[in-house]
Design a protein that fits this description.
- It is a single chain.
- Strands 1, 2, 3, 4, 5, 6, 7 and 8 form an 8-stranded antiparallel β-sheet that branches.
- α2 crosses α3.
- About 6% of the residues have low confidence.
- This protein is of the alpha+beta class.
């Protein structure tokens, strides 16, 4: 009688631990629009992730922080050409997750590094190719995107 009860308790605790680990990444209650993100951003750049992936592609997650080369500053000021940016928090992509290409990155200063606005519950990156920004399927020139960002920041 004691063995089945102990096994049942062991099974219940195992299920509880696995269900907590599976739901460790909390979804955003609301994701900010581009306009809302720009309003809260300290820095908007075109940048390139210089950090190489450290674990196999088959494993979830990525580096805690990445080094980003600032190619062009669209909004805000930063004197450094390379900045440190939060990326993954364990298995959760709350920060900036960017491939090795050029990306617009919308950033908030956090002491000596940058992070995504609103802990990632915002617009984080847009890919840039040949001076064209892909804004959720709509392509616009980098010049037009910069003007849009400046307009949102001034409102």
């Amino acid at each position: 009688m004691l063995v089945p009860r102990t096994l049942a308790m062991l099974l219940a605790s195992t299920l509880l631990l696995h269900s907590q680990a599976a739901s460790a990444c909390q979804p955003c209650p609301k994701v900010l629009s581009l306009a809302e993100t720009v309003q809260k951003a300290d820095l908007v750049i075109v940048g390139k992730n210089l950090t190489k992936r450290t674990q196999p592609d088959t494993e979830p997650g990525g580096p805690d922080e990445i080094d980003v080369w600032i190619i062009r500053t669209l909004l805000g000021e930063e004197t450094k050409k390379t900045i440190r940016v939060n990326s993954w928090d364990g298995m959760c992509p709350y920060g900036i997750v960017a491939d090795g290409g050029h990306n617009v990155m919308l950033l908030k200063r956090q002491q000596d590094k940058y992070d995504a606005v609103e802990s990632g519950c915002s617009v984080k990156t847009y890919p840039v190719k040949n001076g064209i920004v892909d804004v959720e399927g709509t392509e616009m020139s980098l010049q037009n995107f910069t003007a849009l960002v400046e307009q949102y920041k001034s409102n």
